[in-house]
């Protein structure tokens, strides 16, 4: 299913793409210069580091692996994360059921206001985009509470490991975030008759701290590495973790919040469930003073997360990173 917007009235139409059309509607077609070029994507599936969290007892090793992954890829996968299989299966099931609900039921959740905590939408910010994307998402909080609690534990562990890998106190990032925020999205990518003309989700970096992604067994996520797109093939029971913009700032550019995107395919639907771990809106974010020295001058001015988030949404999903709007003035 995909939504098309009637822009004047913001009225929403739902088209059943899978059964009714065999062409991508024109407002979903990207210009030739901005298409996925699927034949140029590398699909070596061991390209993104896989980290075994079970070996936490050999903690130095894990810290070192995470540091390396954050530096080189901004992305890694985790296994033996401690989230029981049934919690994961249940979360996937909840999502599938939601997207199988009759259209009229689902549309009761529709909103294009990004500040709403529970909403159904499509594209990124329908108010700032001309070209739509091929997905539907449902961002929610408080639903699937059991899953959320477990993911929070994994996030807290990862933040400790990331802090340590930067040579900071174990609880440095935890404290820097103030009261933590956690948002979850359910992404639904329908089969698409012409996947080479559009995106499920165009290239972007995540504005938050870290993102922990659960996906079904259909590939679609791609990560930019050394100017090449790498396809990340799903491994059952693992999560994909990526560093968001706030870690790039806290780390004073040691770690990179990298561009990623989701592509669609003509055969199967795909569901992915990202959890966006965030600072509190009032938290003041700045590079850690321990990571500033003569060789590493301070790269960013300080800002509140709410200021950052507002700028992020208002500019739409531009390819150039939102981080550049917060850089310190270049030193003379
Ligand atoms: C996101 C995202 C990737 C995916 O929602 O920010 O990057 O595979 N999703 O759905
Ligand atoms: Ni993302």
UniProtKB/TrEMBL annotation:
Keywords: Iron, Metal-binding, Oxidoreductase. It comes from the Eukaryota. Residues 179-279 form the Fe2OG dioxygenase domain. GO terms for biological process: coumarin biosynthetic process; response to molecule of fungal origin. It holds the Pfam family DIOX_N. One of its GO terms (molecular function) is 2-oxoglutarate-dependent dioxygenase activity. InterPro entries: DIOX_N, IPNS-like_FE2OG_OXY, IPNS-like_sf, Oxoglu/Fe-dep_dioxygenase_dom, Plant_2OG-oxidoreductases. The keyword Disulfide bond does not apply. The keyword Metal-binding applies. Belongs to the iron/ascorbate-dependent oxidoreductase family. PANTHER family: OXOGLUTARATE/IRON-DEPENDENT DIOXYGENASE. This is 2-oxoglutarate (2OG) and Fe(II)-dependent oxygenase superfamily protein. It comes from Abeliophyllum distichum.
């Amino acid at each position: 299913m995909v939504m098309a917007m009637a822009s004047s009235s913001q009225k929403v139409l739902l088209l059943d793409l899978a059964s009714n059309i065999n062409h991508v509607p024109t407002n979903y077609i990207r210009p030739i210069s901005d298409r996925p070029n699927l034949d140029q994507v590398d699909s070596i599936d061991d390209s993104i580091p896989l980290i075994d969290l079970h070996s936490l007892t050999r903690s130095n090793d894990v810290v070192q692996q995470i540091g390396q992954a954050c530096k080189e890829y901004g992305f890694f996968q985790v296994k033996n994360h401690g989230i029981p299989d049934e919690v994961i299966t249940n979360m996937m099931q909840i999502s599938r059921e939601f997207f199988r609900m009759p259209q009229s039921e689902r549309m009761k959740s529709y909103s294009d206001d990004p500040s709403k905590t529970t909403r159904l939408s499509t594209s990124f910010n329908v108010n700032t985009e001309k070209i739509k994307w091929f997905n539907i998402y449902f961002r929610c909080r408080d639903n699937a509470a059991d899953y959320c609690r477990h993911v929070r534990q994994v996030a807290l562990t990862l933040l400790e490991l990331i802090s340590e890998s930067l040579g900071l106190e174990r609880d440095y990032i935890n404290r820097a975030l103030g009261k933590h925020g956690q948002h979850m999205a359910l992404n639904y990518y329908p089969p698409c008759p012409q996947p080479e003309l559009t995106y499920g989700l165009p290239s972007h970096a995540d504005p938050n701290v870290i993102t922990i992604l659960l996906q079904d067994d259909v590939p679609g996520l791609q990560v930019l590495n050394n100017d090449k797109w790498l396809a990340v093939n799903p491994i059952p029971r693992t999560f994909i973790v990526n560093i968001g913009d706030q870690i790039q700032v806290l780390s004073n550019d040691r770690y990179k919040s990298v561009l990623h995107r989701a592509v669609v395919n003509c055969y199967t639907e795909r569901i992915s469930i990202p959890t966006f771990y965030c600072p509190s809106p009032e938290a003041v974010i700045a590079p850690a003073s321990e990571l500033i020295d003569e060789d590493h001058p301070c790269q960013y001015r300080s800002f509140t997360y709410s200021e950052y988030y507002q700028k992020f949404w208002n500019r739409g999903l531009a390819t150039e990173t939102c981080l550049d709007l917060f850089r310190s003035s270049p030193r003379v």
